Amino acid sequence: MKHAVQLIDVSKVYKSGSNEWVALRDVNLNVEEGEFIALVGPSGSGKTTMLNIIGLMDSPTEGHVILEGKDVTYLSEKEKSEFRNKYIGYVFQSYNLISFLTVYQNVELPLIISGISKKEREKIVEEVLNLVPGIYELRNKKPTQLSGGQQQRVAIARALVTKPKLILADEPTANLDVNTGKAIVDLFKKIKDEMGITIVMATHDLEMLKNCDRIVYIRDGKIERIEDKL
């Protein structure tokens, strides 16, 4: 099976004046295409740093990042942006929806940025709104009119609209109650199963692991162990 993500001897050191903070230490990880992986660890363990490096939002101090078989470690900022727009979708803990746009407009926005024609945008957004349960009928509402779970579903739809190969989710259930959080993780499994999209999710909530293929435990910037599905 083809690797969607490879981290090879990745370390990340942040410097502030004479102080250094090691966020990741010699991390090696392979994620196969179509896998649903959970990164688990306490706050400050390195989960978000790892996601940011995989998502080309940050660069490793040492090591290599391979995405879709391409070494992306030393791409220019412009090349990284183009790669992200083409291959990667993001889902955040805080939803990051634009409050003055409707649900439809929030989902459509990445397609506008990518220069997709209005006719094609309408077709794609319609498909995605129907794919993600419970948001089609909300398409004309603003984010402030929605519950947390509804907002997160809209955020997932927005991540899907560019048809990414990889979705990165950073604590996507942290602001939700347990049942709503489980529904979001069930939705990720549906996306993985039906669309073959690779998903890497950072979480500290062990309740959210039932649909994951593998669990990567991180502490102090290092991978402690990797377990197959519970």
Task: Tell me what the structure shows.
By secondary structure, the protein is α/β, with parallel strands linked by helices. It has one domain (34-62, 76-228): Rossmann fold. It has helices at 47-54, 77-87, 103-113, 118-131, 148-160, 178-195; strands at residues 3-16, 19-32, 36-40, 62-67, 70-71, 88-91, 166-170, 198-203, 214-219, 222-228. Strands 6-7-8-3-9-10 form a six-stranded mixed sheet. A hairpin with a 2-residue loop joins strand 9 (214-219) and strand 10. Helix 3 runs parallel beside helix 5 (148-160). The longest helix has 18 residues, at 178-195. The model has no long low-confidence stretch (mean pLDDT 92).
Please give a handful of descriptors for the protein shown.
about 230 residues, alpha/beta, Rossmann fold, 6-stranded mixed β-sheet, 4-stranded antiparallel β-sheet, about 35% helix, about 30% strand, globular, transport, ATP hydrolysis activity, MacB-like_ATP-bd, ATP-binding
The averaged pLDDT comes out at 92
Total helical segments: 6
What pattern of helices and strands is seen along the backbone?
EEEHEEHEHHHEHEEE
Number of strand segments = 10
- Write down the overall geometry: globular
What would you report as the Rg, rounded to the nearest angstrom? 17 Å
Head-to-tail CA distance between termini: 22 Å
Share of helical residues: 25-40%
Briefly note the CATH topology name: Rossmann fold
Strand content: 25-35%
Number of self-contained structural domains:
1
Query: Which secondary-structure class do the elements indicate?
Result: alpha/beta
Q: By CATH's scheme, which homologous superfamily applies?
A: P-loop containing nucleotide triphosphate hydrolases
For the record, what CATH class applies? Alpha Beta
CATH architecture: 3-Layer(aba) Sandwich
Which stretches are low in confidence, meaning pLDDT under 50 for 5 or more residues running?
none
What order do the strands of the largest sheet run in, or round the barrel if closed?
A: 6-7-8-3-9-10
